[in-house]
Amino acid sequence: MLYRFDDCELDLRQHEFRRGGEVVPLEPQVFDLLALFVTRAGDLVDRDSMIEEIWGGRIVSEAAISSRINAVRRAIGDDGRAQHLLKTVPRRGFRFVGEVSEAADAPRAQQGEETQKIRMTRSRDGARIAFTTTGSGPPLMRAGHFLTNLELDWKSPIWRPLLSRLGERFSVTRYDQRSTGLSDPAPKSLALDRLAEDLEAVADAAGLDRFPIFATSQGVPVAVAFAARHPERVSGLVLYGGYAQGRSVRGTEEETRNAEAITTILRQGWGRSGSAFATAFVALYMPDATHEQLQHVSEMQLASATPENAVALRLAIDSFDVTELMGSVRAPTLILHAREDAVHPAAQSGVLAAGIPGAQLHVMESRNHIPLPQDPCWSELIEAAVGFLDA
After folding, report:
1. HEC profile for the chain?
2. What is the overall mean pLDDT for the chain?
3. Structure confidence by residue, pLDDT tens digits, 118-174
4. pLDDT, tens digit, for every residue of 20-59?
5. Is the pTM of this model over 0.85?
6. Counting beta carbons within 10 angstroms of the beta carbon of residue 232, is it exposed (0 to 12), middle (13 to 18) or buried (19 or more)?
């Protein structure tokens, strides 16, 4: 996960590039292109491979490719004349010729990476819920949501950077919701009230009396339901990419078609890496994902839920409706949404903001439903969330 060459370090875990010990910000495609060259050091990387890995096989102009190559060279202190690290093979492609050493973990992991201890509790109806607490500082609850596994999240190129950043400021308690991850795979119910009771059970088991909640996607209505029913326990809400009404409740013809399409994708593509339906799933949830992130999602699917559970959960969360509960929320609330989110429309965050007293709405310029570390909006999300919770 950590590659060293010359005076540079490429940290895939933290999605950071460092030169001379200093972090050098890179555009996502530039970072991914550098990672492609470095991880295949000594091999010829041709134009077709670059287009497939970085641009997903889309048509790309020579000017765009040249621009990214030049940006890679500037970042590593090379240029087209010297080519002491990245050599051009005329009419063939490029070869990274620097001496690369690979480490199993990033520097902070080598200094003693934090471990997590997974515990179990039972919800009110007896469902087993797996949870853990990591990081340091005041408590923060991360509401459960679709596609999690406590063990794999801790190693995830998508979720671990988020957990690490939040853990620098908070003691983060998180859990696998019922029917997913390490929690009960066959619960009696997937109703909204039961999922809110799961959050309550985890808070009780972790010894949390009053705490803020960080919720994403379908975890948002769960957090809203809990906050409305237990105002004395919730000190703040940060809600990202969520909704007030599920697709089946909104009732429009377009939403009905979208719900049916997603259900079909889950039934046909869940856990089938490389299939057209699996590709459609990723394109919907995180269109700007890297190859590493795509592989992780494929691994995560079956580790998180069976195809049957994934479909059942999707149908359940499409029926959630918290419009009658929003007015009872008393906690300060920050609502964030990606403007081009194709899973839950940004308009639903507008419904939440209008219904929760005093809520703040922050719409970001992104199309990824799942927040990706290389997306410029990722830092915007973290800074907004931590700043709000610290206020």
Report:
1. CEEEECCEEEECCCCEEEECCEECCCCHHHHHHHHHHHHCCCCEEEHHHHHHHHHCCCCCCHHHHHHHHHHHHHHHCCCCCCCCCEEEECCCEEEECCCCEEECCCHHHHCCCCCCCCEEEECCCCCEEEEEEEECCCEEEECCCCCCCHHHHCCCCCCHHHHHHHHCCCEEEEECCCCCCCCCCCCCCCCHHHHHHHHHHHHHHCCCCCEEEEEECCHHHHHHHHHHHCCCCEEEEEEECCCCECHHHHCCHHHHHHHHHHHHHHHHHCCCCCCHHHHHHHHHHCCCCCHHHHHHHHHHHHHHCCHHHHHHHHHHHCCCECCCCHHHCCCCEEEEEECCCCCCCHHHHHHHHHHCCCCEEEEECCCCCCCCCCCHHHHHHHHHHHHHHHC
2. 89
3. 999 999 999 999 999 999 999 999 999 988 999 999 989 999 999 999 999 999 999
4. 888 888 887 888 899 999 999 999 999 998 988 888 777 8
5. no
6. exposed
